[in-house]
Every structure is written in C-alpha cells, then in structure tokens.
Amino acid sequence: MTRFRPCIDLHSGQVKQIVGGTLFNTSANLKTNYVSEQPASYFASIYKEHALHGAHVIMLGPGNEEAAQEALEAWPGGLQIGGGITADNAKLWVKRGAEKVIVTSYLFPEARFSPDRLEAVLEALDSDTGKLVIDLSCRKKDGKWIVAMNKWQTPTDIEVNQGMTYDSSLIGDTDAYGYRNNQAARTTLLRVLDTCCRQRGPAKRN
User: What global pTM score does this model have?
Assistant: First the structure.
C-alpha cells in the first residue's frame, strides 16, 4: 500500500520546493519551484490535522532551526527532523519534540560510511533504534545509485542496491527532487527498491 509522507524543506528559514541538484553551498545557482508565504508550523498543523504520519522537516543549511522548532511545536512527537543532525544534537531534537531524527552527512566523514559514528548517534538516543532514520538519498553515477551527502552534492561509498535493507531509511533520487516530469529516473530507482524489499542483506560499499 502506498502512503503519502509529506516533507517540509527549509532553506534560509522558509519552506521551499528546491530542485535538488541545484542546492550548493551558495545560493547563486539555487532553483526553486515554490517558496511558501506560510511558515513551517502552518504545514505541520495541516499534517497533524490529517494524521500524515512519517512527515519530516529537513533543514537545508543554516538559519532553519527556529522554523524547525516551530514546526515541532505545532505537532509534538509527530514529525521527523533532519539536516545537520549529529551525535551531539540528536537527543536534543527528540527532546524538542521530534518523533525521530534523520541522519546523513554525519555518518560519512570524508564521504565514507563510519560505523563508529552510527554507534555514537544510537548511544546518544539511548540505543533506541526507533528514533533513528538514515537518509540514503542518492544520485545516479555510472549506472549505479550512490548515496549523496553535503546537500546531495558529494557521492559517498554506499550504493543503493539489491542487497540493501531499508526499514529505517529515507531514500529518494535527489536529481528528481523538485522536478515534475522526471518519471523515468524515479521508475528506475523504484525498481531497485522493489528488489531490495525481496532480497535483504548488507549494503554494498564501493
């Protein structure tokens, strides 16, 4: 069964729909389809009203913590939070009202997966794996779907493949984010993920 899991993307404190591949460290090349006049808390309230569980708030760069906090206050315990999450602040965001924390870049120092950092985040969460979501947003490279970090610009050493399990993961094609007509790329990734459901095992490292 397909379930709708909405997202609140925050950039410079505003809710935006960003074309994923254009999100660099500077805003000069940033492309957006939509910039909302409403605050993040407005959307959080709508998601709460309609019980859209699994909704998440993503802080894309600095200047978003206040807006994220307001969203969490609008639906305490109902939203997941990601963007800049580390072992140092993971528990703090749960205390602030996040249902779960979403982690990506922190787990990949120098773009290589670190089991030690994963353990550090889990330790900070009192070993509660139900509070952790690993973001495996990816980009296609040389015919493979590679997990991307650093605002989806830096490829890591992890491939989304037919041996991966993703019960507690957030996965998407970052090059399709914000596009309305990129069905071909989405379909290719969905086929890989469908196979992942059927064949479980360890993730493949490049």
Answer: 0.78
